[in-house]
């Protein structure tokens, strides 16, 4: 080892060489014993040196000398020979060439100014973009195919008109006025309806109306599905319409409270009590409706809203009662011979039309049919009297007292109702189902006539119902003054199909005769109930539909171009009438099936004709309720279940 160190320190003989005359060679040595015959890989920056030219006894590293160890060869760890990349087949490049668009022509480079040559890349040829886009080429060659999944994201939307009072008033005459004429007649035919779309995820850019009556009208209009809603019957769409409508209804009530608020009440209450009521100074919603009537109109609209949409009879009575008190404080129920621009508006609120001697004001005027409104008032009074008769009858029957007074009252009501119904059957009904509202209010007159027939015939069913059917329960839950099935029978309602759809005790009781003191026989009362029920169903079909186009049409109009819903009627006030009609039809159908069963096969043409008329009548009631259910949840879905359940079992 000493000789090796001495040889290492001795300079090499010979002439001096230039720096880097011989390329450097990197040789790795280590202290472990390795196979010196292994191949040596020179670094990329040196030339390989043959093993036979390398004298291992001469090249000894300084590290080995200082540590007094034997120098042995250690192979490099920088990796072995590089793997040659496998060339792509020629077919891949041919596929790429066919997929890429044809090579664009080179852009001629001429006409450049001298100053254009000083920019970066000046004078270079411009290549087509397809060859410069490496991402496109790489994705085409190496990306696995991904099938696009269509996104079906439905955003619930609601109908709105913003704070545009003119658009809200125009929509009122289209959707509400034919069924609830609480405003004066329009000055012209309404223009086509143009609602706005309010999405559930829309957070800005929305403005609500200011007046209470505009908010109340908007609350009802918001329940009508928007024409652009792709799934108006979906749960999310119904929930969003319900939420937005309730927001507007609450805002209407808050607006009424704010208009009645006195600033002095919070600062100096004694001064607020001494001062007289101040007049309101703001723009009127309708040019022929005074400001003091707007809160009354709003409360009347919200009363129907609570009944038809929310099913809250307690709040319905509260809203109607508040409107009545406000109207009587303005003496709207008394006669006023002074005629001005607001006279018709004062006669329109329909809250007071059932009163007797206390109501002395003149009826509203309908140019197309001046007798339509008085006839409607008489039908309201008739059904009120029939409802009171049912209440008194049930009290006396449960108490077991003398029924003679009830029998006399039954005859009195029949003498009152029969001529009214006969007269109603002679009314002309040559009106289009989708005629737009005009200043003559012909559509309104037709609707009032239909509602009058419905109420008169419903009142007659109330009078004869017990004598004809003994008030046997049919529906699964109570509605109006109709009895409901006990819970035990509701739970086992489906298996109890004998010859028809009703429980066994119905058939045993149906053949019983009423007490001899009754002024009418079971057969006579049943015939009256059947005729009245068929009249109600026919007038449901004759009720006009809203016309949002402003043009004359022959058939009902759909909500939108792609919608499957016919424009819904609004402001229903005869849900009880629909239930009375369904009850009578179902009872007669049960009696028909028990006496003339289908299994006998000996039914006459009269029996088949009666079955068809009964089924058509039930379908008319169901179609009417479904049309209302498009906008009003409480009236539609709940009542439809009560009618549809027994109808399915009787089919």
UniProtKB/TrEMBL annotation:
Region entry Disordered, spans: 255-279
Lineage: superkingdom: Eukaryota
Biased composition (Basic and acidic residues): 259-279
PANTHER family: ZN(II)2CYS6 TRANSCRIPTION FACTOR (EUROFUNG) (PTHR47431:SF5), ZN(II)2CYS6 TRANSCRIPTION FACTOR (EUROFUNG)-RELATED (PTHR47431)
Name this protein carries in UniProt: Transcription factor domain-containing protein
């Amino acid at each position: 080892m000493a000789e090796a160190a001495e040889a290492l320190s001795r300079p090499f003989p010979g002439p001096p060489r230039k720096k880097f005359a011989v390329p450097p060679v990197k040789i790795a040595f280590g202290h472990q014993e390795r196979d010196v015959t292994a191949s040596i890989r020179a670094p990329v920056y040196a030339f390989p040196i043959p093993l036979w030219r390398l004298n291992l006894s001469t090249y000894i590293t300084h590290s080995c000398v200082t540590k007094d160890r034997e120098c042995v060869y250690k192979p490099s760890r920088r990796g072995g020979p590089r793997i040659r990349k496998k060339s792509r087949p020629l077919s891949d490049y041919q596929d790429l060439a066919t997929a890429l668009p044809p090579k664009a022509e080179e852009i001629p480079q001429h006409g450049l100014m001298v100053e254009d040559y000083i920019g970066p890349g000046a004078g270079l040829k411009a290549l087509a973009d397809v060859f410069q886009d490496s991402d496109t080429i790489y994705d085409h060659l190496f990306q696995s195919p991904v099938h696009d999944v269509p996104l079906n994201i439905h955003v619930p939307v609601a109908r709105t008109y913003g704070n545009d009072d003119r658009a809200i008033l125009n929509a009122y005459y289209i959707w509400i006025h034919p069924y609830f004429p609480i405003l004066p007649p329009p000055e012209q035919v309404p223009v086509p309806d143009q609602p706005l779309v309010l999405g559930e995820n829309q957070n800005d850019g929305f403005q609500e109306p200011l007046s209470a009556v505009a908010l109340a009208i908007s609350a009802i209009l918001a329940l009508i599905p928007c024409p652009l809603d792709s799934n108006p019957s979906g749960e999310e769409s119904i929930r969003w319409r319900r939420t937005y409508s309730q927001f507007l209804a609450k805002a209407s009530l808050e607006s009424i409270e704010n208009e009645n608020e006195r600033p002095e009440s919070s600062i100096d209450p004694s001064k607020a009590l001494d001062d007289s009521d101040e007049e309101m100074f703001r723009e009127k919603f309708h040019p022929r409706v005074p400001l003091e009537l707007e809160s009354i109109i709003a409360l009347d609209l919200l009363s129907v809203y609570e009944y038809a949409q929310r099913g809250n009879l307690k709040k319905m009575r509260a809203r109607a009662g508040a409107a009545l008190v406000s109207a009587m404080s303005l003496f709207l129920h008394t006669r006023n011979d002074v005629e001005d621009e607001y006279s018709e508006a004062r006669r329109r609120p329909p809250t007071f039309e059932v009163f007797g001697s206390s109501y002395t004001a003149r009826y509203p005027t309908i140019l197309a049919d001046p007798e339509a409104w008085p006839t409607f008032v008489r039908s309201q009074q008739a059904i009120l009297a029939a409802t009171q008769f049912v209440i008194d009858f049930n009290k006396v029957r449960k108490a077991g007292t003398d029924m003679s007074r009830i029998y006399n009252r039954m005859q009195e009501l029949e003498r009152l109702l029969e001529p009214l119904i006969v007269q109603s059957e002679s009314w002309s009904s040559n009106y289009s189902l989708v005629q737009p509202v005009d200043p003559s209010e012909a559509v309104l007159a037709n609707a009032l006539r239909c509602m009058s027939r419905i109420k008169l015939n419903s009142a007659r069913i109330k009078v004869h119902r017990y004598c004809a059917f003994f008030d046997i329960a049919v529906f699964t839950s109570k509605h109006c003054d109709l009895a409901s099935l006990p819970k035990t029978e509701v739970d086992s309602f489906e298996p109890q199909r004998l010859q028809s759809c009703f429980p066994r005790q119905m058939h045993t009781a149906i053949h019983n005769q009423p007490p001899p003191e009754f002024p009418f026989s079971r057969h006579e009362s049943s015939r009256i109930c059947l005729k009245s029920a068929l009249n109600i169903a026919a007038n449901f079909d004759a009720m006009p539909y809203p016309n949002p186009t402003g043009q004359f049409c022959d058939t009902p109009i759909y909500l939108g171009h792609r919608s499957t819903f016919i424009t819904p009627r609004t402001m229903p006030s005869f849900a009880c009438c629909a239930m009375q009609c369904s009850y009578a039809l179902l009872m007669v159908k049960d009696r028909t099936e028990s006496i003339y069963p289908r299994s006998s096969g000996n039914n006459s043409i009269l029996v088949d004709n009666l079955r068809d008329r009964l089924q058509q009548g039930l379908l008319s009631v169901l179609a009417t309720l479904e049309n209302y259910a498009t906008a009003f949840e409480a009236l539609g879905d709940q009542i439809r279940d009560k009618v549809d359940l027994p109808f399915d079992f009787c089919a």
